[in-house]
Design brief:
Length: about 240
């Protein structure tokens, strides 16, 4: 006897890739890279299920120092992704990383979901200035339609980070977050969860009677969090412990 549901096709979720671009140059050694390792490893369980019925979230990690390399050969579902501790050494070849990201941000590479992909989210972390010709790679990225519609956030770690270059990457200074060693883990967690929640939605974000782009929605959340943090009593207990 046939089942009435035999001919009904299963609903295939969309896929959202969350890209981490991590500066692993020598200046990141010690506390900085240690906190990056800890923060990303600890936030992963909180990403599971965020996409709900709309999207599956996959993780891709691009490391750059002398050149660049992927942590894994393809994006991996957040349900099974295992973080590999990152070491820091070498230069800051951001241009090479941008060129590589542009090449993989394609239906023929990392964005080849069987049904459809929503625009990715990209979180860049750096504590220095590019040591290669980054403009060529950045131009490649901005010629990529996936990148234009992606959520783009950068964490500028400590005073040595080049905020202007990071703003060229994100498209605006509002999407560049200045962080120090004390706030680094908090902001990694915040932007990872916020970008995943907003990015995994199939449409733009409805706000105040109008539809925001996902990028604008994330920037607004960042600004609200920065304002909230600026008004926290410095004598109060750390909310992020």
């Amino acid at each position: 006897m046939s089942n009435m549901f035999d001919d009904v096709e299963a609903i295939v979720k969309r896929e959202m890739v969350l890209f981490f671009m991590i500066d692993q140059s020598g200046s990141m050694a010690g506390e900085r890279i240690g906190k990056v390792n800890t923060a990303i490893r600890e936030v992963l369980p909180d990403l599971r299920g965020i996409g709900g019925s709309d999207a599956d979230i996959k993780i891709a990690v691009l490391l750059f120092s002398n050149g660049c390399q992927w942590m894994y050969d393809a994006p991996i579902s957040v349900d099974t992704f295992q973080w590999i501790p990152v070491q820091a050494n070498g230069m800051t070849d951001l241009g090479a990383a941008c060129t590589e990201l542009a090449a993989k941000m394609s239906k023929n590479a990392f964005l080849k979901a069987p049904s459809a992909s929503v625009a990715p989210a990209i979180i860049l972390m750096s504590d220095g200035c590019p040591t290669d010709e980054y403009k060529f790679g950045l131009d490649k990225l901005w010629a990529n339609n996936w990148f234009k519609h992606a959520i783009r956030v950068a964490l500028a770690i400590d005073d040595e980070a080049d905020h202007e270059v990071l703003a060229e990457f994100t498209g605006s200074s509002e999407a560049v977050i200045p962080v120090d060693s004390q706030s680094l883990m908090k902001w990694i967690r915040f932007v990872t969860i916020t970008s995943s929640k907003i990015g995994s939605q199939s449409q733009g974000v409805f706000e105040g009677g109008a539809t925001q782009t996902k990028q604008d929605a994330v920037v607004q959340m960042i600004q609200e969090e920065q304002h909230s943090a600026a008004n926290v009593d410095p004598n109060a207990a750390d909310q992020w412990d």
